[in-house]
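A common beginner's mistake is to predict each chain separately and then try to dock the pieces by hand. The better habit, illustrated here, is to supply every component at once so that their relative placement is modeled jointly.
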Amino acid sequence: MSYVTKSPWIIHYDGSSCNGCDIEVLACLTPMYDVERFGIINTGNPKHADIFLVTGSVNEQNINVVKQIYEQMPEPKVVVAIGICATSGGIFKECYNVMGGIDTVIPVDVYVPGCAARPEAIIDGVVKGLGVLAEKRAAMDQKPAAPAEAEEKEEA
Amino acid sequence: MNLATSIIGIAAYLILAPLAGGLLAGIDRKISARMQGRFGPPVLQPFYDFFKLLEKEPITVNKVQDFYVMCFLIFIVITGCFFFAGGDLLLIIFTLTLASIFLVVAAFSSNSPYAQIGAERELLQMMAYEPMVLIMAVGFYLVNGSFNISDIVTSPVMAIQYLPGIFLGFVFILTIKLRKSPFDLSMSHHAHQELVKGLTTEFSGKTMAVIEIAHWYENIFLLGFVYLFFANALAWSPVLAVVVCLATYFLEILIDNNYARMKWQIAINASWIVAITLGFVNLLILYFIS
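With all components supplied together, the output reads:
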């Protein structure tokens, strides 16, 4: 059994969202929904996070931020795109500065569409993400001694 | 205390302290959640977090920081062993300081601005609580005529009768040591915007797990100091002491949930004022009546 599914820590990043989805993400932490009962903590630190929640589309300004947060997260990690903008670009898809959904920049594991996505849907998406997290963890065990750099990734 | 009881004390601490510390952390999170009107995580959640961290990919900024974090754990455990073997109170206080310094050096070595702010604040916190901790050691010496914990717990007098001010002062700085609001300046769970994660920003995976288990060890012997105020030669005093330890921890949770984080200036001023008014005055009175 993998403990990663029992203690998923989340980092939340607002791409170019209208804040609608962000408010719903934060609503998950309130007494009404209380995701901490699944062991979920909203951490502000990518290095402690297991699940990356992104709201809003990716634009020219934040493309590097999204990439950096993703790269700083240690494996196993899962990306959950929250809201229709993060899924496909939504109504901003045609904008000159918008790249589209999060999957144009980093691999996305779970899509939670909606405008705004409801807290129930977000929790459901995160719980679906836990399944992916467990699979990725199992995959890490199967090829433990791949390249030497995977064993200890060192940053400058 | 003879050699056999010392060894039993050390063995019990090494095995039971992480279990009790983790459980205490879980109960802490559950009670905090209930105080906020939430259901809260399972009581065993800190253990899940710990094993999860062990499963994560190791990422280190530089290799030396893992060494320092390991030293932090080792010296925390050594400090606790001295304590539960009935060792010298002054030695315990200074090895504890050494352990904390290792964590600060580990954070500084990463060169990350957030970790450095956290480390800087950790140093300020140490400045805030150290005077009170030293006054506590002097107080125990004046009451029992010995710095040895084995003498303190077998003494005929109950230290709290002579050291009420020092006890209150120690409970005050315990808020800093247990990393509770309003003094959780250096590595708060709640200061995302300002600190990211402060002291522990650059630690992840196994390194973070080491820090977690070190904190469990640390919390248990910090409550051991509270125990010292009540334990004496009387048979029922350990029971009273344990009850007071739990009540103190509950009080800290209550304070944690009722206060926002304060500035470091307030932390230093408040703890020094408490150390002078409660601690030092208590010492003076003790000096004149003895």
